[in-house]
Amino acid sequence: MEPVYGRRYQAEHLRIPPGAAGAVSGKISYINSFKEKTVEATVEKKVLQKSNGKNIFHAVTENFLHAEFESEKKLKAGSVAMLKIISALEDSIKCGREEECSAELLK
């Protein structure tokens, strides 16, 4: 059985600022409440083109989640996309990166 670490341990050893561990777990819970739901999002930018021809994009959803998704389409910044939330990017959230969840492009 793995040991269970409290918020203080997380704050000291996982580089989460003191007092923020509750905020991090709250954000993850909030994102997970939208898992498998469809949301409207505004594409911010293309971040990377993979060797398989797919592009990785960042977008902000109508409920202010910062999502990352792949698409073969060429999407422009400012365009609207329908995304299905897949999961919270827990490591990204804990490290303070902008991307908070992974998503799948529907339209």
Q: What does this entry look like structurally?
A:
It is a single chain. This protein has 107 residues and is of the alpha+beta class. The protein is 22% helix and 36% strand. It has three helices and five strands. The chain has helices at residues 7-13, 21-32, 90-94; strands at residues 38-49, 55-61, 66-71, 80-88, 101-105. The radius of gyration is 16 Å and the shape is globular.
Offer a quick outline of the entry.
This protein has about 110 residues and is an alpha+beta fold.
Strand order, sheet with most strands: 1-2-3-5-4
Q: What do the pLDDT scores average to?
A: 83
Structural class by sheet pairing and helices: alpha+beta
How many runs of DSSP E, i.e. beta strands? 5
Helical proportion?
Answer: 10-25%
Gyration radius (Cα, Å) is 16 Å
N-end to C-end Cα span: 43 Å
Main β sheet profile:
5 strands, mixed, barrel
| Total of helices | 3
Residue stretches low in confidence (pLDDT < 50, at least 5 long) are none
Q: Strand percentage, roughly?
A: 35-45%
Q: What is the general shape?
A: globular
H/E element order = HHEEEEHE
Structural topology:
Elements: H1 7-13, H2 21-32, E1 38-49, E2 55-61, E3 66-71, E4 80-88, H3 90-94, E5 101-105
Parallel strand pairs: 3-5
Antiparallel strand pairs: 1-2, 1-4, 2-3, 4-5
Structure characteristics:
alpha+beta, 5-stranded mixed β-barrel, 107 residues, 3 helices, globular
